[in-house]
Design goal:
The complex is a heterodimer of chains A (about 270) and B (about 350). With about 270 residues, chain A is mainly α. Chain A has one domain. Chain A is about 80% helix and about 0% strand. Chain A is elongated and about 65 Å long. The two termini of chain A are about 25 Å apart. In chain A, about 45% of the residues are buried. By secondary structure, chain B is α/β, with parallel strands linked by helices. Chain B is about 35% helix and about 25% strand. Chain B contains 11 helices and 16 strands. A 7-stranded mixed β-sheet of chain B has the order 6-7-8-3-9-10-15, with helices on both faces. A 5-stranded mixed β-sheet of chain B has the order 5-4-1-2-16. A 4-stranded antiparallel β-sheet of chain B has the order 12-13-11-14, covered by helices on one side. The C terminus of chain B is likely disordered. Classes of the chains: A mainly alpha (about 270), B alpha/beta (about 350). At the A-B interface, helix 1, helix 8 and helix 13 of A face helix 2 and helix 3 of B.
Chain lengths: ~270, ~350
């Protein structure tokens, strides 16, 4: 973001205002609470408890097949009784954490951009002495920061739950591990920003939050499937590969945001609202 | 600075803006002096809201320029908006925030400290009769209450120029009266006010000058009386004889030196005379005819009279029939009695046009 100096006070005020408004909107708060609760609490507890009591010989057979043998070497190196717990909670369910930044930032972005149009509150903002760039930054950060906060809080909850469930078998902390930390600390923010970049494009074409969510769903859902499908492999890949993938996602996300930022002008907003 | 004329509050030169649907504003050139109340008149789609948006740097002009308080609206938008307050047609309040939160947010973005914002907001809540609903979400507010909150928001920073876009639309009569009284008190404080409206009554009560827009072009600009003087020669008068003037009385009236037109009315006749000195001659002539004269009066033309006369001129030129769409009044009788002569402060235009002139 080049150009005039940023007015961070105004940016924070817009973010705070948006967050206050969002907190009072059940239709936004509910999915933001329920989805993480299901993905980060119910699912790991249910599957973790199941995995703890699962017969180990079947797991060992599955993991020793030629197709996955090399890939799951970090798991195969573990004592047999630990494999299933580490596999399920460390590698299979952990990637679902990436769905959280994707989903939360999409919901918040739809409200921040299309929602303003729908509620006809945009014009009031446009007559305030805040630059187009600062307004854009405020809207983007207003969706990004909560998405990241929820993701990281969710990740901590998930890690604690996983270790509590795994403790009777493992007697040690197995989450986080290096790749897990890299995915949460480096890739998850990039995913949130990518989702935002896509939703801002969608929201600029939508007149209502519902329309933005529907259009956004068409864009975000394939991304969710892609992430859910590939992130397990990411957890098993060498750390440097995770960093490289993170760079790729960040690059794409920032490119989208730059394009969106250039298109985010009062003139466009006023004529599209 | 003392060698020059004082800087106008607003000056536009050939200000133009088009959308995909066509030109919304085409070559607007006006000058509004500090402390003046300008009525921006025109039917729906005339270009009033586009003008307000352009003058606040929300829209970018395609052509021409505009300065508000010396700031170029195209390049110094934030500076303009720091000194202007805008009441938009839709109040634009965030319904998920309380009245106080809506106002505090705007005050803080405008640079108020938390304490100063709280104090200013409390003052305005009291002034606008909103103190009791300060901590209610604005979701259930009536249109009138929303307008008052939005007006308070527009005044938070005590702006030098206030833009009011359809301030009474959607209000009931009591709400309309309240808002008009508020605007009158604001005008009394010497603030420059631009009142964009298609309610001619409120504009007539509040405005010093009027700018008539139609299809994005300025049709007339000036004080109503100045524009009236351009529209009609002489002044109008009414004579009350207790009954419609018959042909004999009409002939006698027409024979009075200085009477240029005579039309019978329900109680006597409507006259057009060259000046007020003709009135005693009219009375004498009627007394000479044995008529009882109950009243003789001249009537100043209202802003509505002038507007519709301008519209009629436009209709005659363009043969359009839809010009009055969206106007909230009945068509008036022909206007009478312009109280002052034409000066440089008025301009009527068959196309785009410009005008400058003094304020109040």
């Amino acid at each position: 973001m080049s150009g005039p100096k940023r007015d961070w006070a105004a940016i924070r005020l817009v973010m705070r205002k948006d967050l206050t408004a969002v907190r009072r909107s059940k239709s936004i708060v509910l999915p933001m609470v329920l989805v993480p609760a299901v993905l980060l609490v119910l699912l790991p507890v249910a599957l973790g408890l199941f995995a703890r009591s699962a017969p180990t010989d079947q797991v060992a057979n599955a993991l020793s097949s030629p197709l996955v043998k090399n890939l799951v070497k970090p798991i195969l190196d573990l004592p047999e009784r630990e494999q299933i717990i580490v596999l399920v909670l460390g590698y299979l369910l952990s990637p679902l954490l990436l769905v959280i930044p994707l989903m939360v930032s999409a919901v918040l972005a739809a409200d921040a951009f299309a929602g303003e149009k729908e509620r006809r509150t945009l014009e009031g903002l446009l007559y305030l002495p805040i630059s187009d760039r600062d307004l854009f930054l405020a809207k983007v950060l207003g969706a990004f920061v909560p998405a990241l906060a929820i993701t990281w809080v969710g990740a901590i909850v998930y890690a604690v739950l996983s270790n509590v469930i795994g403790w009777p078998v493992l007697h040690r902390v197995f989450v986080p591990f290096t790749q897990w930390l890299l995915v949460m600390g480096w890739v998850a923010p990039a995913v949130a920003m990518l989702s935002l970049g896509l939703l801002v494009i969608v929201s600029s074409r939508a007149r209502t939050t519902q329309e933005a969510n529907q259009l956004g769903g068409a864009v975000i859902l394939p991304l969710i499937f892609l992430i859910a499908g590939q992130a397990s492999a990411l957890m098993l890949a060498p750390p440097v590969a995770v960093v490289v993938v993170g760079f790729g996602v960040w690059g794409l996300a920032l490119l989208l945001l730059m394009i969106n930022g250039r298109r985010f002008t009062r003139d466009r907003l006023a004529t599209s609202s | 600075m003392s060698d020059h004329a004082p800087e106008p509050a607003i000056e536009t030169i050939d200000l133009s803006r088009s959308f995909a649907s066509g030109p919304a504003l085409d070559g607007l050139s006006i000058r509004v002096e500090t402390g003046e109340v300008l009525a921006l008149l025109g039917p729906n789609g005339a270009g009033k809201t586009t003008t307000v948006r352009l003058l606040n740097g929300v829209l970018t002009p395609d052509r021409g320029s505009a300065r508000v308080l010396g700031f170029d609206v195209a390049t110094d938008g934030d500076d303009v908006r720091r000194h202007t307050g805008v009441l938009t047609e839709n109040a634009g309040l965030d319904d998920r925030l309380t009245t106080r939160e809506n106002l505090i947010f705007s005050a803080r973005v405008r640079g108020f400290s938390p304490d100063a914002a709280a104090s200013r907001v409390n003052d305005l809540l009291e002034r606008f009769g909103l103190a009791e609903r300060a901590d209610d979400l604005t979701q259930g507010f009536s249109t009138g209450q929303r307008k008052r909150v939005a007006l308070a928001r527009a005044l938070l920073h005590d702006p030098d120029v206030l833009f009011l876009d359809e301030p009474t639309s959607g209000l009931d009569p009591a709400g309309t009266r309240d808002v008009i009284e508020l605007i009158q008190s604001l005008a009394g404080e010497g603030r420059t006010i631009v009142l964009a409206t298609h309610f001619l009554g409120e504009a007539g009560r509040l405005a010093d000058r009027m700018a008539v827009l139609h299809r994005g072009r300025l049709r007339a600009f000036g004080r109503p009386d100045e524009l009236a003087a351009e529209l009609w020669s002489g002044i109008g008068a009414q004579i009350d004889l207790g009954a419609p003037a018959d042909s004999e009385v009409q002939t006698a009236l027409a024979a009075v030196p200085g009477v240029t037109e005579v039309e019978p009315s329900a109680t006597g006749a409507d006259l057009r005379i060259v000046d007020r000195d003709v009135l005693p001659l009219v009375v004498a002539a009627m007394v000479g005819q044995g008529q009882t004269v109950y009243e003789v009066a001249s009537r100043a033309p209202s802003l509505e009279d002038v507007y519709f006369a301008i519209e009629a001129t436009f209709l005659a030129e363009h043969g359009g029939a839809e010009v009055t769409d969206g106007f909230m009044r009945d068509r008036p009788e022909p206007p009478t009695d312009p109280s002052s002569a034409i000066d440089s402060g008025s301009a009527m235009n068959s196309g785009s046009g410009a005008g400058t002139g003094g304020g109040r």
